[in-house]
Amino acid sequence: MSCIAVDPTNADHVMVTYSNYGVYSIFYSSDGGTTWAKAGGNLEGANAPSVRWARIIPVSGGTVYLVATSTGLYATTLLNGTNTVWVQQGTNTIGNSVVEMIDWRPTDGLVVVATHSNGIYSSHITQVADINGIKEIAKADPGFQFNCYPNPCTDAATLQFRL
Q1: Of 14, 31, 98, 133, which is least packed with CB atoms within 10 Å of its CB?
Q2: What is the pTM of this model?
């Protein structure tokens, strides 16, 4: 198990993730863990990413569910079992980078996403319509450049560094 996410407005709503390939990754309970339903939807299957982190965010107009994966950040506003549709976020910034963790500040909706080797990104999510994009806030050293391609890869990858 890689993460347990609890809805801050209703502790009976819980999402758990498993970070491994070849196993079902996302489960949801609406009754405090008595019963569980699969919620991975389109993030499951033959070439599914590993899911590292999850966050349940109550917002104006509903709930936003975020998952951090080995192929980027994904969001949905409706958990519909195996038919859940997860949409990639930050496609032009985060892209297919490995996302390790998500944190959220309820006072102003600040969401911060940490990637593996591609910086930290943030956005304010206060309503359902806000899950369209994430903006970059930091990278290690502006003079340092790192590129890994193709991403994702299957057999080999090229690592490119510029100082």
Answers
A1: 31
A2: 0.80
